[in-house]
Amino acid sequence: MEVVADHVKALDWEAIEASLDAYGFAVIPALLAESQCRALAGLYDRDPLYRSRVVMSRHGFGQGEYKYFAYPLPKLIASLRTTIYPHLVPIANRWNAIMSIDVRYPATHAAFIERCHGAGQLRPTPLILQYQQDDYNCLHQDLYGDHVFPLQVAILLSQPGRDFTGGEFVLTEQRPRMQSRAEVVALQQGDAVIFAVSQRPVQGTRGPYRVNLRHGVSRLRSGRRHTLGVIFHDAL
Question: Which Pfam families did the record assign (predicted)?
């Protein structure tokens, strides 16, 4: 997994931070190669790798399904979690300071997971989502417990136009006393989007204030779509 670690280290993290500050998300083109995407999507039917399967329509989440990985995580996913996290910690801590949230995150992912486990959040949260024709994901937030890392990553494992049509990644942002603003994030196979889990700071004329974000996926018109979700906190 050294190749993934080297790739992550070489990313333009200043530009990523600037995009997160401006829009609440940042796109990383070609974070994973096509072969890695195919390999990860191929794990979906290997049930022993997972701790649970969620059929979204049963819970009012939309249509489609997803599976949460069990520990130990596949090496590539574990590497993504541990190598991306340290680059996001300064952003997360700065955001919390601006929003007057009295939580700071440790420098390493291992230390943060130790914090989660100490609070009883023991279940891993990385997951693969599968959508087929007419499936969609309602706007939501991935919180899971008291200890929440405020940024997460989604990586598109399928190729738009070849494997599926429709199924765009969507973000909405609710600012105080304003209508919600929507962003449709165009991704290609292997692209990643880093985005705010629930809140981010915005600078207003009278100082900074918090905005609330949700994310989802629009309706698939055809085909099948797989996505890897990399969430940095574990669940209760």
Answer: Oxygenase-NA
